[in-house]
Amino acid sequence: MSLPLVMKKALITTTGIVVDEEIFTCPLAIKKQWFQKVLETGPIEVDFCMDPDNRNEGYLLLSVGYEWCQRVEHQRFGEEQMTAYFEQLEKMKRAYLQRKK
Question: Under a CB-based contact definition with an 8 Å cutoff, are residues 44 and 38 in contact?
Fold first, then answer.
């Protein structure tokens, strides 16, 4: 991990912890149902820090310490990779359906 960590503002939304248009989650947010609670309260702004060389994880700063967060898995792949994956999946489905006939 390179130093220093970069401090950013994040929003806790129904989608997750949003930082620079990327979505993160953490065990505490799931356990405390933060993503459901913001349906009633609206998004909550929080402090978030991350290593600029590793955008797959970061830390939510809390009054009692910090909570490790990780980027939501589908955010780790680019559009080309996702398109290729779904195209391959469709080919496999068609091949499977052809075999069943």
Answer: yes
CB atoms under 10 Å from CB of 59, counted, come to 19
Query: Is residue 23 in some structural domain?
Result: yes
Total domains present in the chain: 1
Which class for 25: exposed (0-12), middle (13-18), buried (19 or more C-beta within 10 A)? middle
40-87 pLDDT, tens digit per residue, is 999 999 999 999 899 899 999 999 999 999 998 765 666 677 677 767
What's the whole-model pTM score?
A: 0.68
> Residue 29 belongs to what domain range?
6-100
